[in-house]
Amino acid sequence: MCYLKTFDPTVPMTYFLCVMSICVFTVNPYLQLCAMTGGIIFLVCIKKKRSLKLLALCALVMAVMALTNPLFVHRGMTELFYVANQPYTLEALLYGLSLGCSISCLLIWFSIWSELITQDEILAVFGKRMPKTALVISMILGFIPKLHSKYISLLHAWYAGGGSRRKSLKRTALIFTACLAYEAEQVIDISLSMKARGYGLKNRTYSHKRHFRKKDAAALAFSLGLCITCYILIGSSRLDYWYYPRLSPEGFDALGVGSYFLLCLSPMYFIIKEKLLWRYCPAAS
């Protein structure tokens, strides 16, 4: 179990929002490299071999975005060659790589989010103040993995019933329609069950597995402090970077890049600490 799960759910949720919000609102390659490096290390630590498929997908996304962007965008001063009498520029190539990197970073960090943030923790954070919104968010986040699992089970049932193993659009449409019908019934059952239990009423009590402690406050202040530092520097144009018409000679600020790099790699402290405790501090027999 990752040591981050011992914190109050507010702490890891705030941390992920800080990391991903900065990655979304900037095209600075130094910040993107920080997010990519921290995300890959974090993902490999918690998922190990299961992370290889996602990393391969991210590499494919970056390659496709980088190679196809100059085919549609012909801005930039450094012409590499011509395609259909249109310039294929270095600036457009690197900008496409930057967009692919942003998408890949979001995929990686959302994968880590799904591994550490459960539906119960979302309900624990937002359930008291925004019960309906919290329920909708938790159901949306759990919809895709449940739909995929149901699709696989129905596909196996199709094979067991003598169905053809040949891939076809008709077979996929039938199974996908059955999955949607099943999920719709599940949503109705869940909503009626939650309503019967008094979910969302003012006098309903809430129980939490963990309480907000001093270490939660310290971790939360640490994440917010680094995030606010990065946003201040972004707002003051010290982390601006542009690709057109030429690549920006600036964009590297030691304080901003260092703060974001520390933010992205901060969970490694807890992971390394946990591994060292398990290895060198065994329980007394």
- Beta fraction of the residues? under 5%
The gyration radius over C-alpha positions equals: 23 Å
Could you give a short account of the major beta sheet?
Answer: 2 strands, antiparallel
Element-level helix/strand string? HHHEEHHHHHHH
- Please indicate the count of domains: 2
Which term fits the overall shape? globular
Low-confidence stretches: none
Number of strands: 2
Number of helices: 10
Topology diagram in text:
Layout: H1 10-24, H2 29-47, H3 51-72, E1 79-83, E2 86-89, H4 90-116, H5 119-126, H6 131-160, H7 169-196, H8 214-235, H9 254-265, H10 267-280
Antiparallel strand pairs: 1-2
Keywords:
2 domains, mainly alpha, 285 residues
